[in-house]
Design a protein that fits this description.
Layout: E1 2-7, H1 12-27, E2 31-35, H2 42-45, E3 50-52, H3 59-67, H4 76-93, E4 97-101, H5 106-113, E5 116-121, H6 150-170, H7 173-181, E6 198-201, E7 217-219, E8 244-248, H8 255-266, E9 271-275, E10 290-293, H9 298-304, E11 307-310, H10 314-322, E12 327-329, H11 334-346, E13 349-351, H12 354-359, H13 362-373, H14 375-388, H15 393-405
Parallel strand pairs: 1-2, 1-4, 2-3, 4-5, 5-6, 6-7, 8-9, 8-11, 9-10, 11-12, 12-13
Helix pairs in contact: 1-15, 4-5
Length: 406
């Protein structure tokens, strides 16, 4: 069968999840063709997949809107341009299935072209999430309203209803197009990242619970692509017995973070490995103390590290947990802040405000010391590690997709 992959290729997190499933689909004997335009499609080409060009939203525009708190994260004209591009590629390649991750036009374009559609998404980006994206009522202390009380549960349901209603009404273009195109279900800003026919939740319910989940939604576990990057010349490390910290801000970080990071690491009590995701050339290595690369095999480094410092991206958090390592998150967008609230609630890490770090970089070393000295963080991470071992996300996802077509 032919599967057309629609990841948002400007972010490695969206690209890598689809790539993990694509490799498994190909192993099962099916053809996968990718569509994308960013430089990161080189990771796909290196794996031997064909890539066709397609228009994608500019990441500076998209993430700029998200970071500034704009509910209207994209203009109507941009969505229509994506929709037109989708249809052109789908009609050209005639796939049996479209698999998307971060392509919010896909539920509409696959309806128009009458092609089955599956999407990889986090539970937090669905209308069935059990936890509020923006907690309106968290200012109420537990001694005032117990989190187990019925009134608190009612407030959570109200919170979910209000935030989704507001988001959908601000980004009403999705509902308008749904009406005009007479879609089988109403596509909204809240559910635009989910699948028209199948939704693969790259989560575990223990970490991100849901409610009233339809049969077409499947928890498959975290999807991580196993890197084929060769280790750098300085690996394996020959360093003193000081703690080793891995710092990775993904590919949607803030460049000024790295300018403040260098001086902070050079005087820290720990050694560090930093991946910049190609976002900065300012950070310089200090052999024996600080090691810097654009990209690395994250699994290789995390297994050796004591703490993982990241932007709070879902994939990086799960990758750290798969190695039983505690997490320090410095989130830059609302999704990452949502993730880090769960990290703190479940006790396997700490969140550090980006603005506070930029003003006082020494806070990073203080937070590392706190996480390392309190063994409960590592113990909590290892409990989730044990749960994650029961998942085989890529194989499970591929089987669900093929069964949905047959």
């Amino acid at each position: 069968m032919r599967i057309l992959a629609f990841p948002y290729t400007h972010t490695l997190s969206h690209l890598s999840r689809v790539l993990a499933v694509a490799l498994e689909l190909r192993r099962m004997g099916h053809e996968v063709v990718f569509a994308g335009e960013s430089a990161k499609v080189s990771f796909v080409s290196q794996q031997g997949f064909d890539v066709v060009p397609i228009h994608e939203p500019d990441p500076e525009m998209l993430f700029g809107n998200i970071r500034s708190g704009k509910l209207r994260f994209v203009e109507d004209a941009e969505l229509l341009q994506m929709l037109t591009a989708d249809i052109e590629v789908i009609r050209s390649l005639k796939p049996d299935l479209v698999l998307s991750d971060g392509r919010f036009s896909a539920p509409l374009s696959t309806h128009l072209t009458n092609v089955r559609h599956a999407a990889i998404v986090n539970a937090s980006s669905t209308e069935y999430r059990a936890l509020p994206y923006v907690p309106f009522f968290d200012w109420m202390p537990p001694w005032l309203i117990s989190r187990d009380a019925m009134i608190w549960k009612a407030l959570v349901r109200l919170n979910l209803f209000l935030e989704m209603k507001l988001f959908d009404n601000v980004m009403k273009v999705f509902k308008r197009l749904s009406r005009e195109l007479n879609t089988n279900r109403t596509v909204t800003a809240t559910n635009c990242l989910t699948g028209k026919d199948i939704t693969l939740l790259a989560d575990i319910p223990e970490y991100f619970p849901s409610r009233n989940l339809p049969a077409s939604y499947h928890y498959v576990g975290p999807l991580t692509w196993k890197s084929v990057l060769a280790p750098p010349a300085w690996w394996p490390l020959d360093i003193p017995s000081s703690p080793l910290v891995y710092v990775t801000m993904g590919t949607t970080g803030v460049s000024e973070f790295f300018s403040k990071l260098g001086p902070s690491l050079s005087t820290s009590f720990f050694s560090s490995i930093v991946t910049t995701g190609g976002q900065s050339s300012e950070l310089k290595p200090m052999p024996g103390k600080v090691y810097v690369e654009s990209y690395l095999d994250g699994d290789l480094v995390m297994e050796r590290s004591d703490v993982v410092i990241c932007h709070g991206g879902n994939g990086t958090i799960y990758q750290a947990l798969s190695h039983g390592k505690p997490v320090i998150g410095i989130p830059t967008i609302p999704d990452q802040k949502f993730n880090m609230r769960r990290v703190e609630a479940m006790g396997f890490g700490k969140s550090l405000d980006l603005k506070q770090f930029l003003e006082k970089p020494s806070l990073l070393a203080d937070t590392v010391k706190q996480v390392l000295s309190d063994h409960s963080f590592r113990n909590s991470a290892q409990k989730i590690q044990a749960v994650l071992k029961s998942y085989n996300a890529a194989t499970t996802s591929a089987k669900i997709l093929i069964d949905s077509i047959l």
